[in-house]
Amino acid sequence: xxxxxxxxxxxxxxxxxxxxxxxxxxxxxASAAAAGSDPxxxxxxxxTSAYGPQYVCGLWRGNVPVYSWPYANEPVVGYLYEGGRxxxxxxxxxxxxxxxxxxxxxxxxxxxxxxxxxxxxxxxWGWVNLVYFAGGDNDQxxxxxxxxx
Length: 149
Hints:
Elements: H1 2-18, E1 43-49, E2 52-59, E3 64-67, E4 76-80, E5 84-89, E6 91-94, E7 105-107, E8 110-112, E9 114-119, E10 125-129
Antiparallel strand pairs: 1-2, 2-5, 3-4, 6-9, 7-8, 9-10
Organism: Streptomyces coeruleoprunus
InterPro entries: TAT_signal
Signal peptide: 1-24
């Protein structure tokens, strides 16, 4: 389903770009715009899912795992196969250990305790760690995604 939306989205984007328009709708206001260093530089896409408004966020790679819960030891329920700005999210949540310290997800030299909620390419809902979002710093939340906790 998400792949079909992406194909339709990409085709519509090509038509609109030829006409000098974009699918993003009106430019976000200064207060809603993501900073250049904001993870994923998320922007509302004007659509709504079962879990709220959708935000397109940039990923620095494809084949990103989607976890059942916002913890690294949870099962992977699917993947986001495309990187870049092909994926949307509905919110974010910070994960904590039992002693109420942040539960970090590590990937190479990067780490983050913030997770974003989305639908994997197989149609299952789950969580992606913000370490996969393009830009941002270690353990930085998105300034745009709403709370999903």
